[in-house]
Amino acid sequence: MENASPSAAPDPLHLDQQLCFAAYTAAHAFAAAYKPVLEPLGLTYPQYLVLLVLWTQDGLSVKEIGTQLHLDSGTLTPILKRMEGAGLLKRRRDPNDERHLRIALTEQGRAVRDTVATARERVVCALGGDEKPIQQLKDELHAVAKKLRESL
Fold first, then answer.
1. What is the mean pLDDT of residues 145-150?
2. d(Cα 126, Cα 38) in Å, to the nearest integer?
3. What's the rounded Cα separation, in Å, for the pair 60 and 56?
4. What is the secondary structure of 20-46 as a DSSP string?
5. What pLDDT digit, counting tens, does each position of 65-80 carry?
6. Which residue stretches of 57-126 are H helix?
7. Which positions ≥6 away from 2 have C-beta within 8 Å?
8. Measured CA distances, 132 to 43, 139, 149 (Å)
């Protein structure tokens, strides 16, 4: 078998050429970076994402949370049940529409915010401490995700 010449174009199906793999490994690295702060609180990374949504706007419906996190209710419901069992939130029927559940943070769910903020600070420091390139990369990744969702 011949070796590829140095001037040959990279194989587009080589793992190292895959944007999806780079995003996948970055997602795992983020989850691992947050784990030392989240685990002692009994939180998983997906639960942390739910808290981020509710810290911004409490009392959302399951559907509204799912829309923001791009999760269906079948994935989100078990996460919310575990969080309710841990005392972080309450699930209540919407009085205006009994078909919908509203999710509200408990005092405990609000209280972990300051502790969890240290996880983000650690990640920012690990990425060089400058917020501007972090926000630029975040915007680029959101744009990629939006284009892919629109193409489906």
1. 95
2. 17
3. 10
4. HHHHHHHHHHHHHHHHHHHGGGT--HH
5. 999 999 999 999 999 9
6. 62-69, 73-85, 107-126
7. none
8. 28, 11, 26
CA 50 to chain centre: 8
pTM summary value: 0.87
Helix or strand or coil: residue 99? strand
- CA within 13 Å, CB half, 64: 14
> Residue 24 corresponds to which tokens in the numbers above?
């996948």
Number of Cβ atoms within 10 Å of the Cβ of 23: 13
Q: Are 34 and 44 in contact (CB under 8 A)?
A: no
CA distance 23 to 27: 6
Q: pLDDT over 90 for what percent of the chain?
A: 86
